[in-house]
Amino acid sequence: xxxxxxxxxxxxxxxxxxxxxxxxxxxxxxxxxxxxxxxxxxxxxxxxxxxxxxxxxxxxxxxxxxxxxxxxxxxxxxxxxxxxxxxxxxxxxxxxxxxxxxxxxxxxxxxxxxxxxxxxxxxxxxxxxxxxxxxxxxxxxxxxxxxxxxxxxxxxxxxxxxxxxxxxxxxxxxxxxxxxxxxxxxxxxxxxxxxxxxxxxxxxxxxxxxxxxxxxxxxxxxxxxxxxxxxxxxxxxxxxxxxxxxxxxxxxxxxxxxxxxxxxxxxxxxxxxxxxxxxxxxxxxxxxxxxxxxxxxx
Length: 298
Fold this sequence. Notes:
Blueprint: H1 3-12, E1 20-24, E2 29-38, E3 43-52, E4 59-65, H2 69-81, E5 86-90, H3 104-114, E6 122-123, H4 129-141, E7 145-149, H5 157-164, E8 201-202, E9 238-243, H6 251-259, E10 263-265, H7 274-288
Parallel strand pairs: 4-5, 4-9, 5-6, 7-9, 7-10
Antiparallel strand pairs: 1-2, 1-8, 2-3
Helix pairs in contact: 2-3, 2-7
């Protein structure tokens, strides 16, 4: 390891000969190894095992309206830690910024290492409302689901995923299933991102769903050998979450996205900031679908 990764390993992590480390390439490959040589700003790692982790399904994209600069770093950190596959920056009508932060790819890589991800999120160039509408249209046309976070929506995320057949079979719904949330004041939505790095990276050691559902199996993450089937065929292969800016969606944006097939959803009785709503929605989706059932190395 040399360059920035070597400097970080030697000067920041202070790795020592004989120490075990993990290496990832940002595209699903994870290697386990042992440090054999430590220099001034570089080190050598003897790789002992290599595994390739399949992408989680359904694929999760967040269309994130560009937020204030003082919250943009937090936004990318949270989306990455929540496991989002793609982030699509959106220049919405009420966005207080029109440029994708230059630091986002670096933040995504750092946060991926911190959260032990072998796959880094892809960050696309910024798109306008017309581009996001086209993404919604294409996703729905291919059998995917688009969740439009909005404070005045009535349907919890769980209801929409259930209707689409996207709920994990770990959830046994009794009676009429998930109840619709009450009418609320406030909301947001969004997703997608850039090319993942190709060089190995040294790893560092209002919305919400209602809780009025009876869950027969409380285990959301199951790493047992019998249930590492998170990558088998599923009814829905793509889920897109759209998160609006601090000032909320305009009437035109709401109309355009819903006409294209997006489903307005609410996450709970409180209204979240635009910077945090996407990560919260991503966690709800991952818990309710097969995404968090466990890793399945190839």
